[in-house]
């Protein structure tokens, strides 16, 4: 049994809010699959699993905020016996879950506006649902039981827990659905059909909604509006860990293969507009990111005795090599000089372990692997520095491809948790429209940050002649508790040397 | 593709790269970079998306011709008609 924990996405993160589950209990998941989205002050982050097996129980529902390290779900690893976590818990009871005081069992409005309001309904329902009703396991034989209905429901419904959960996710009132299962039980298919019919009535096909839900959050209209109810109340609350363990049952008592679980693409949970419903409004998000940056930078300036070094590097060889290289490459494979700077930095770091690691609990721990964090600015303010894992081992084409994807995901709001978690050093490059010099601030608990200004043509002396060369100013801010200027200077010189041999990067 | 279609394509691609931009107010004959906060990575993604939408191979030395909306439309139309001949 493996647990998926609320990850720590940056040194300053203490809590996170589950926004949505993109996979459902009973589904087979592979290591690296994205199973959930978590809202942090760095935006909505995709969370991957680190085990392969069956997603068994979901322990934290969308809209709930829990501390870092809290189990979010359990995964029965391939080959492991089925079991339950006895101490599993699912956050605060519904009444305290920070849910808007909407009528919990009101049927979905006949013509709800798209996305946000639609999603809010679904979330409100999710929060109010007594968790116990979902925990009801099916008896052997897979016969759908009449799970304990909602308090206001006039009659007990014949509906499986997984169908009920799906209904909640999609904002479908099960009482209004005609069951086609054994004994008139409501199946997952019935719920999906009902949701599709309603979507059809709205003139907005399901697939389109799925596409809309997958859009970059920064620009999606739904997130521009203040998110309703749950989003405002939810994130501030942290669930006390001593609550009873409501469990989410897998959809079938038998093996998950039975009944062919939906693929991620067709999974209604993945498409559910509730993914938008619990997100923060844009301004609130920006304000929180500002606070987060302020906290990290204040800590850095307070605790880290920075020293700063700078040197100007001739980029003639690098730029010439790059132009020739890009001439040969199709547009999708072209390189930016930024990729060369990052690669050179990563290679140089191999000889400078005192710049690549973490200062924690009063001592320095060098990190063997080199994960360069790349500072990416957001156009509406703020920045995020996700990691390019094993940067020194990536060839330039791969590094460029990852970098491009990373920037796109940062600006599109679909970063993966593993990319945020563990950069061992940061590189900040102000781009060609910026300024010549940056004196960066170390991001704790890292101990160094490398800055690059814009490329500037300068008069440059080469073998007694003055020539015009493209140049760039590289700076290093490093932690004096760990290293000294002498070593830092050697490190910048190593970057310079590597950039003079671009073909071997 | 007609000019109008190309214009729509360029605007769509731009909207994907810079979702927060107000494209209705975009001046077609002024460089994107003076109107939108695009960096070299955004621009590369823009060029790649244009390539994917039109199948036009865009060499790096032609990038300057893609600086504005009008420039993009003119360049792509020219390359597409050259391909048909």
Task: Give an account of the 3D structure.
The complex is a heterodimer of chains A (505) and B (85). With 505 residues, chain A is an alpha+beta fold. Chain A has 15 helices and 20 strands. Chain A has helices at residues 116-128, 131-135, 161-170, 188-201, 206-213, 221-224, 230-233, 268-271, 274-277, 282-303, 316-328, 337-349, 396-412, 417-421, 485-499, and strands at residues 2-5, 15-21, 28-29, 34-40, 43-48, 53-58, 65-67, 71-77, 306-314, 357-360, 363-366, 372-374, 376-377, 383-384, 387-388, 415-416, 425-429, 448-452, 456-462, 465-479. With 85 residues, chain B is mostly helical. In chain B, 59% of the residues lie in helices and 0% in strands. Chain B has 4 helices and no strands. In chain B, helix 1 (3-17) crosses helix 3 and helix 1 packs across helix 4 (69-84). The longest helix of chain B is centred in the last third of the chain and has 16 residues, at 69-84. The two termini of chain B are 14 Å apart. The chains are: A alpha+beta (505), B mainly alpha (85). Chains A and B meet through helix 11 and helix 13 of A and helix 3 of B.
């Amino acid at each position: 049994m493996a647990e998926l924990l609320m990850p720590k996405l940056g040194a300053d993160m203490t809590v996170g809010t589950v926004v949505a589950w993109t996979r459902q209990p009973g589904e087979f998941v592979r290591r690296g699959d994205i199973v959930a989205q978590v809202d942090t002050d760095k935006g909505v982050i995709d969370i991957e699993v680190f085990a392969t097996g069956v997603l068994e129980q979901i322990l934290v529902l969308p809209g709930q905020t829990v501390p870092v390290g809290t189990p979010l779900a359990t995964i029965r690893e391939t080959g492991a016996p089925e079991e339950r976590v006895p101490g599993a818990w699912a956050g605060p009871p519904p009444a305290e879950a920070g849910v808007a005081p909407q009528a919990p069992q009101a049927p979905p409005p006949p013509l709800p506006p798209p996305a946000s309001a639609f999603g809010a309904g679904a979330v409100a329902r999710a929060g109010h649902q007594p968790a116990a009703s979902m925990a009801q396991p099916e008896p052997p034989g897979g016969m759908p039981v009449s799970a304990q209905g909602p308090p206001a429901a006039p009659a007990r419904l014949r509906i499986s827990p997984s169908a009920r959960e799906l209904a909640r996710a999609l904002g479908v009132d099960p009482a209004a659905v005609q069951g086609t299962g054994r004994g008139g039980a409501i199946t997952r298919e019935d719920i999906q059909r009902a949701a599709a019919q309603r979507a059809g009535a709205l003139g907005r096909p399901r697939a389109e909604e799925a596409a809309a839900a997958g859009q970059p959050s920064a620009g999606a209209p739904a997130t521009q509006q203040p998110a309703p109810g749950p989003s405002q109340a939810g994130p501030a609350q942290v669930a006390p860990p001593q609550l009873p363990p409501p469990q989410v049952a897998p959809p079938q008592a038998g093996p998950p293969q039975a009944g062919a679980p939906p693929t991620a693409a067709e999974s209604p949970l993945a498409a559910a507009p509730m993914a938008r419903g619990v997100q923060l409004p844009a301004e609130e998000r920006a304000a929180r990111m500002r606070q987060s940056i302020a906290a990290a930078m204040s800590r850095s300036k307070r605790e880290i005795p920075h020293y700063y070094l700078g040197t100007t590097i001739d980029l003639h060889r690098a730029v010439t090599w790059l132009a020739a290289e890009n001439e040969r490459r199709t547009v999708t494979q072209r390189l930016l000089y930024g990729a060369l700077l990052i690669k050179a930095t990563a290679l140089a770091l191999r000889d400078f372990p005192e710049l690549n690691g973490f200062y924690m609990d009063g001592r320095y721990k060098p990190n063997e692997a080199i994960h360069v964090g790349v500072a990416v600015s957001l156009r509406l303010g703020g920045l995020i520095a996700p990691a390019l894992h094993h940067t020194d081992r990536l060839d330039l084409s791969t590094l460029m491809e990852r970098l491009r994807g990373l920037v796109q995901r940062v600006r599109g709001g679909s970063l993966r948790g593993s990319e945020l978690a563990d950069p061992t050093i940061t590189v900040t490059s102000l781009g060609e429209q910026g300024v010549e010099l940056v004196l960066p601030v170390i991001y704790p608990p890292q101990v160094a940050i490398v800055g690059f200004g814009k490329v500037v043509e300068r008069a440059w002396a080469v073998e007694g002649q003055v020539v015009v060369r493209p140049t760039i100013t590289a700076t290093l801010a490093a932690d004096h508790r760990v290293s000294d200027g002498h070593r830092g200077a050697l490190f910048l010189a190593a970057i310079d040397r590597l950039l003079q041999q671009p073909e071997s990067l | 593709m007609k000019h109008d279609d190309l214009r729509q394509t360029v605007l769509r691609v731009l909207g994907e790269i810079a979702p927060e931009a107000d494209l209705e107010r975009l001046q077609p004959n002024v460089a994107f970079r003076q109107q939108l906060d695009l960096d070299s990575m955004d621009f590369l993604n823009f060029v790649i998306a244009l390539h994917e939408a039109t199948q036009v191979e865009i060499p790096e030395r032609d990038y300057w011709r893609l600086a504005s909306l009008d420039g993009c439309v003119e360049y792509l139309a020219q390359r597409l008609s050259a391909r048909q001949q």
